[in-house]
């Protein structure tokens, strides 16, 4: 079999793989990108989990369901009366599908424009930087490249005691595809997916029970934020049960009985559908042939160094399939970094400053260390907090819930962490990421002009509050 030669072959066209392929082509390299994602219609689509079954469809449904909820619960406060408010899930799902299609077709267009050879099918790394490509019709081709980048992503974890059946017990993708609002929905796991998708279906009218094994709510977040969030989610009607370890599920005439244990002992709750959202695992199935030298750790992650080198020849790995947070933007930066390093340029990814966003209402976003982490580090610190209740813009938006919180070092004033719960938190956090990327001090933020009236003034005031110089609220 004759081998087709490339400078770079990327396996996987999710948010880690496709930017890597495009940047490598921008760098003047001959690039191929192989992707095997197939949607429920059996057709291939680029964009990976994020575009097809993750970030984009979930945000489309979060937006629709939030609008419905606001029309139902909040418009009256604006003096807007909505008569005969109705819900058409089919149209909502059709809108979502249209957004997904436009986004995934967009990647195909970007590949074409950049000159990337886009291959749909399966890629398998063989020894000596060779890749076996199997197309949809089963035919195989041998490819070879100077560099191979593995960007094969992750897949949902399953509970052994309740395997996915695609109908009643579903993963996050299944929960994005419901054709009607379930009357009673069980969500296993109060992580990011559980909270986002639980919010979607709760806002649309489902009774939602969230079972979380840990006693602590959102342990990865600043605990002041977690406490505030729990209050608002419970107010929305999410029945969040902490310390609830799920053991089994049994389908019966009345629905699915989910058994769990908590501090009081054996419990059960009966629901119509169950979403299992207990985390994701790296995906390397049928990826690594004999003798590639690529190592996988006991949890299934491909082992890499800080520059995403696997240590096996010129093989690199990026995105969810390697260590670090499973986030699209983290994968994207790794992909771009690798493409630049391959081209001999300087590049790095600062894993300490990867922003996290939970797209609930109120929205939650943070970057850097939590107060608990700073305290544990022993470094003297100061905190400034500003409630959105004191923000004219937030009040005008009828969205006064939450606060912006900034943590800075006592000695040199450097910002160590920023945590926002409130309207547009995911957008507001970008300023904090940029500030921290440049090692900004609290004083730098204090002396930066923020337009009025904007939500970003909340972050400005939090920086001022760290030195008890806030203007729009009393300093304590
Ligand atoms: P993936 O997106 O998983 O892409 C990997 C691609 O490789 C897939 O297309 C796969 O089919 C393909 N592939 C695998 N093996 C092979 C092979 N051998 N040959 C060919 N192709 C192969 N992250 C955020 O940052 N923000 C969010 O709002 C967000 N929301 C999410 C919501 C949900 C419901 C879910 C499930 C995830 C969400 N995420 C979010 C996480 C985000 O989707 C992932 O972090 C991101 O998709 C990882 O990108 P990746 O390129 O590493 O992998
Ligand atoms: P997660 O790790 O965020 O949360 C899983 C939760 O399930 C944990 O709180 C865990 O304690 C709990 N759990 C585990 N086993 C359990 C059991 N048997 N019973 C009850 N609870 C149990 O995982 P996820 O929510 O599935 O999300 C997966 C990944 O996708 C995350 O890494 C996340 O970063 C990414 N994601 C990101 C976004 C975003 O950026 N907005 C949105 C969705 C997903």
Write the layout of secondary structure elements.
Elements: E1 3-11, H1 17-26, E2 31-35, H2 48-53, H3 55-73, H4 89-114, E3 117-126, E4 130-135, E5 140-150, E6 154-156, E7 169-170, H5 172-175, E8 184-188, H6 192-203, E9 207-211, H7 223-236, E10 239-241, E11 245-252, E12 255-262, E13 265-271, E14 273-276, E15 280-282, E16 315-317, H8 328-342, E17 356-358, E18 363-368, H9 371-377, E19 381-387, H10 392-396, E20 403-409, E21 415-422, H11 425-437, H12 442-446, H13 457-465
Parallel strand pairs: 1-2, 1-5, 2-3, 5-16, 7-14, 8-9, 8-14, 9-10
Antiparallel strand pairs: 3-4, 4-5, 6-15, 11-12, 12-13, 17-18, 18-21, 19-20, 20-21
Keywords, please?
single chain; 476 residues; alpha/beta; 5-stranded mixed barrel; 5-stranded parallel sheet; 30% helix; binds flavin-adenine dinucleotide; binds nicotinamide-adenine-dinucleotide
Describe this structure in words.
The protein has 476 residues and is of the alpha/beta class. The chain is built from 13 helices and 21 strands. The chain has helices at residues 17-26, 48-53, 55-73, 89-114, 172-175, 192-203, 223-236, 328-342, 371-377, 392-396, 425-437, 442-446, 457-465; strands at 3-11, 31-35, 117-126, 130-135, 140-150, 154-156, 169-170, 184-188, 207-211, 239-241, 245-252, 255-262, 265-271, 273-276, 280-282, 315-317, 356-358, 363-368, 381-387, 403-409, 415-422. The strands form five sheets. A five-stranded mixed beta barrel has the order 1-2-3-4-5. α1 (17-26) packs parallel to α4. The longest helix is centred in the first third of the chain and has 26 residues, at 89-114. Nicotinamide-adenine-dinucleotide (NAD) is lined by residues 159, 188-194, 196, 211-214, 245-246, 277-280, 325-327, 357-359. The site of flavin-adenine dinucleotide has 37 residues, from β2, α2, α3, β3 and α8.
